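Repro:
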Amino acid sequence: MTRPPGTGTPPHVSTEPRAATPAPASAPAPAAPVPVAPPPALFTLGEAMAVAAAIQPGPLATGAPLRLGWAGAEATVAIGVSRLGHRAAWTGRTGEDAAGAMVLAGLRAEGVDVSGARTEPAVPTGLMLRERRTADRLRVTYYRAGLAGSRLAPGDLDEVRLAGSRILHVTGITPALSATARAAVERAVVVARAAGVTVSFDVNHRERLWSRAEAAEVLGRLLPYADIVFAGPEEATLFVPEDQPDRMARALTRFGPGQAVLKLGARGALVVAGDEVHVQDAVPVTAVDPVGAGDAFVSGYLAAVLDGSPVRERLRLAALCGAFAVSVPGDWEGLPRRAELALLGAQDISR
């Protein structure tokens, strides 16, 4: 640190080195410094819940085999970024129950920092029941209203760690859960923006949680804070008229984001960044489970942002992560690690 002008060593103070004064025999040994974890590269907050997923097609009935797991949009992005080599932190609430313990243990096992997570002794962790009604049709039922994930509040945020991160990622799911969860997301984007942290916003509209009108109003307030916005074409129509994907993406950037990414499913994706439009084909794979593909895509894109990659490479990595995700059952289980990218990445999938 530079000394302020006009200051120096006062004339009555000697600059000669002094002999060290021995410590009294009774003096305690100095305490070891408490290690401080470095801030995460990615900070995110949201809901995570247990998942009971049918293994075989058909209606749920007594004795039907189920696979137990857990999921959450923001948690999936945190895992994807962590597997690709960047520190990620997740903040949320779980119940003080077996499901909550499973969620937190799973995130820790994936290297995600959950020091900001809280447990709720009075309410349980939410549950997603996933039924494979036919071989190619999923039916999902959520049990989440008033449960632990919806108790997220602004006071749960570690604003110091948030301000020290490089990317804040939020979705349109969490603001729909409750007034306090909405306030937490709104506070997070304000803190991030003030600190110069890149704000990533995935619209992720869920019609079961709220109406399009309410979603448009609330999420429309978040959009100007975003540096990167992700949406599907239908989600984008919350804010802009239906049009060609590149025109819709360009219209989204007029709200403030420097980059607008449209996820087009089997047709790939495109991003408008400044005056440029980049298009990415989907990676051809055998789809096993489509759930979680959008979050996997986002995790790849944000990991590439943290890598310092150009936009075209961000899209490429995003497409690879989405392809890995849909080729494995579960929301996040199929997310790739760096060493695995070559399994699908040998193809020239950009144009």
